[in-house]
Design goal:
- The protein has 312 residues and is an alpha/beta fold.
- It has a single domain, classed as 3-Layer(aba) Sandwich (Rossmann fold).
- Helices cover 30% and strands 24% of the residues.
- Strands 5-4-3-6-7-12-11-10-8-9 form a ten-stranded mixed beta sheet, with helices on both faces. A two-stranded parallel sheet has the order 1-2.
- It is globular, with a radius of gyration of 19 Å.
- The C terminus is likely disordered.
Length: 312
């Protein structure tokens, strides 16, 4: 399906340059198609980069998808313009009367704080409670995955001796599971975080299934047995250069960070890194939208007139 986005969304020009079929809003609205409605709660500081990364993945299926971007009402982001938020984002009070087929909650650079110390924690938990009845399936990325494990399943996080940054090999525990259908026996995926969760606690929890893990960095893909919650502890959505940009940012801040592992050719930061995880990123989102959202969501949700924001 083509991607339909609002006029003037900064990601639009980039998507067109990547030869992604972009369709105008009016044409999408005129089609007699039941689109999937996906809510993206974007907690990343550089929101425009995260938008582009997620739109690429959500747009790579035969399913027409209507995406709504959600922003916090209790915290004002510092790295994005107010006009961008006003034009392309909504707050929870504007969407809580609606239902969504799927939801994505991004990571956030707050993992070294206790969950309850995060300024928007109360707002996030209100949204998580609302999503239990109003969203078919939810993907949580990095810190959001840790937050979901803590809030829904009582599994806490702990701080690592040093930042986990790099691209690591992962294995699949059940290749017949729909979410990882088509995955290689071993695949690469990026991580960028200061905290982690216990592999043993995840494995022993009666409501959870561990689908993928790394010998080096622990649990990676975790799902609830009812398929409602999908926790991804790393960043399959990252671009090839994202870890390099984070590394350069941390060096400029004077932080004691090491070169991302298994990332730069010959471990040389002057050499451009390659994306070795792109195919599995697309496959994960394709499988999620197909098996966990499209196949499971009720065909007839109740929508009001403002339900359609834009399609991808």
């Amino acid at each position: 399906m083509p991607i339909n986005i609002p006029k003037n969304l900064p990601a639009g020009e980039i998507l067109r340059n990547e030869k992604i079929f972009v369709m105008e809003e009016d044409r999408a609205l005129s089609q007699d198609i039941r689109p999937l409605n996906i809510l993206v709660f974007n907690l990343m500081p550089e929101k425009e980069k995260a938008e582009l990364q997620l739109l690429r993945l959500l747009g790579n299926t035969p399913l027409q998808t209507n995406v709504t971007f959600l922003n916090t009402a209790t915290y004002e982001p510092k790295h994005v313009s107010k006009s961008h938020l006003e034009m392309f984002y909504k707050t929870f009070d504007k969407i809580k009367h609606r239902r969504f087929d799927g939801m994505v909650i991004t990571g956030a650079p707050v993992e070294r704080m206790e969950f309850e110390e995060v300024r928007y924690w109360k707002e996030l938990t209100e949204i998580l409670d609302w999503a239990k009845e109003n969203v078919t399936s939810i993907i949580y990325i990095c810190w959001a995955a840790q937050a979901a494990l803590y809030y829904h399943f009582g599994i806490g996080k702990y701080e690592l001796p040093k930042k986990c940054s790099g691209v690591y090999a992962h294995v699949i525990t059940d290749l017949t599971n729909d979410l990882v259908r088509g995955f290689n026996d071993e695949f690469m995926a990026p991580h960028s975080r200061y905290t982690t969760v216990s592999l043993e606690e995840v494995q022993q929890h009666p409501e959870l299934e561990l689908l993928s893990y790394s010998e080096e960095v622990g649990p990676f893909i975790i799902q609830s047995k009812d398929h409602k919650h999908i926790m991804i502890t790393g960043h399959l959505e990252y671009d090839a250069t994202t870890l390099a940009e984070e590394y350069e940012r941390d060096i400029k801040k004077g932080l004691p960070v090491e070169i991302p592992e298994n990332y730069f050719p010959d471990n040389d930061p002057t050499k451009p890194p390659k994306n070795t995880w792109r195919a599995h990123a697309h496959l994960l989102f394709y499988n999620w939208l197909n098996y966990y959202v499209y196949q499971e969501t009720p065909y007839e949700w109740h929508f009001v007139d403002d339900a359609i924001d834009y399609y991808i």
